[in-house]
Amino acid sequence: MKFSRPGGMTAFSIVWFGQVVSLLGSAMTWFAFTIWAWQKTGQATTLALISAFAFLPTVLFTPVAGVLVDRWNRKLVMLFSDLASALGTLAVLILFSTNRLEIWHIYVIGILAGFFTAFQYPAYSAAVTTMLPKEHYARAQGMLGLAPAISGILAPVLAAALLGTIGMANIMVIDLLTFLAAFATLLWVRVPQPPVSETGRASRGNFRQELRFGFGYLRTRASLRALVILFAFTNFFLAIGATLLAPSILARADGSETVLATVQSVGAVGGVVGGALLALWGGPKRRIHSILLGGAGACLLGVLALGLGPGLLIWAAGSFFFSFFEPFVEGGNLAIWQAKVEADVQGRVFSARHLLVQLPYLAGMLASGPLAEYGLAPLIPPGSGPGAGLAWTLVLAAVCGAAAFLAGYAFRSIREAESLLPERNLGETK
After folding, report:
1. 131: which residues sit within 8 A by CB, 6+ positions away?
2. Does domain 8-187+210-420 have CATH number 4.10.520.10?
């Protein structure tokens, strides 16, 4: 009897479940890293650098990964990237267990892990296009947004509780076990290769030509180019909000792991609610509203509350809304790209987009700590309390980010992007 691998929404749901389990383990590990690094240095800049070093190679190598994703089997690329992430965790576990782990070790391992993660974004984004019909793209993005949110609800609480009992080493062991779920579910399902489109056939050439193709594709499509510019501006401010959340809470809550875990878990609940709503509803008919209004909401109801909040209740509410709107922003954006870009060139086009919008995000991550500790902190009146510089940096990022999102309505190429861009050519089946 011939074995039939699941396909379609069933296959996507299986892969999604494996990612939820894997992300739970990874989120627990990174929460433990955050507490360990804060206790070791007490500096927001250290936490920002840990995130930045893991993020940098993901951004820089994404265009190269995009070319290879379009050339290679996308399922194998996804398996490869998951395996590499597990090896990074294993390396940290060995260093920590032998009492040799230092901050710079996490920087280096973050760089190596980030290199392999560069393949993950274009592979998973492009795979959705071939696994599902376009009417399910927004729902799929809602489910993908749910995955980190679900893990985010449980991970901080579990990690905070387990740190004092089983310790950081055993949390990393749990993380390694959860990678098996992601690996096994990917092995089980069928991930179709994309059909060959006229655009994809014409784009074939040597590696350098294919590397440039994604950027040339964006240059000739005004609305896609405008969306890239919008996210390039807004991502800088969103990065400040995401990076300073943990150190600002720890600074104002006397280093309490429980308070940080509560704020992060409530934020994850917001992500689950937002992702579930998007998955069930599909989002607004005009997806640009999901992007612009959702982004402004994340800044004003999320980041601004985190900065101005006087205590746990407001911090938790800000974290909730920051995460609640994220699936709408990213889901609406990716649904537009998946519907408009030919499937067999999405690896290169999505990677070019990813590089251009994530470089400002990286800049925001790197600037957040020094801006708060050396830029705004000296301007804060004495007696304002601990973490005041961090809090006011969040306020500044919230106001600027919301203004940038709402300014998108002033430009026709953004406001009417969906009607100005033609539907993608489905091409011929391989």
Report:
1. 7, 8, 9, 11, 12, 191, 192
2. no
